[in-house]
Design a protein that fits this description.
This protein is of the alpha+beta class. Helix content is 21%, strand content 41%. The longest helix is centred in the C-terminal third of the chain and has 13 residues.
Length: 143
């Protein structure tokens, strides 16, 4: 089921370079880490190195939460964020992997360099299929 995000919500999500993703063990012990995601309007994707705790958790428990948030350093009453709950899947190749890899390279110039880039299926890409979302805002949404 597609999320009913506004154009302003989509702009907000797409402009932020970093989000925080929460994964959990099979028993529900959570862990939060920063990620550099892209959102194609349907799914969220981010790359991760092989052998990370994120991958271990997702293999045990595919339920995840990702938060896109921002605040005005000069006015802390101007806060906003969007939390998306979803199901994570590890991609190691295929058409969707190529799609996500291209989107990540487009958004993050570092992924196009020899130091920060990677070859097709060299590292996993995580796909989050959103199920629900919530948002908060004190102050105005920045466009």
């Amino acid at each position: 089921m597609p999320l009913k995000l506004t154009v302003s919500d989509l702009t907000f999500i797409r402009q932020l370079p970093v989000a925080r993703v929460a994964t959990a063990t099979k028993s529900g012990n959570p862990r939060v880490r920063p990620v550099w995601p892209v959102f194609d309007g349907k799914n969220i994707y981010f790359a991760t190195d092989s052998g990370t705790v994120k991958l271990k958790h997702i293999n045990e428990n595919s339920a995840v939460s990702i938060v896109f948030d921002d605040y005005d350093r000069d006015n802390w009453s101007n806060l906003k964020g969007i939390r998306i709950q979803g199901t994570a899947k590890i991609l190691n190749g295929g058409g969707e992997y190529k799609h996500a890899h291209a989107l990540l390279k487009e958004k993050y110039p570092e992924y196009r360099t020899a130091e920060g880039g990677w070859a097709y299926s060299e590292i996993p890409i995580i796909k989050i299929a959103p199920r629900s979302f919530g948002k908060w805002s004190d102050g105005e949404w920045k466009e």
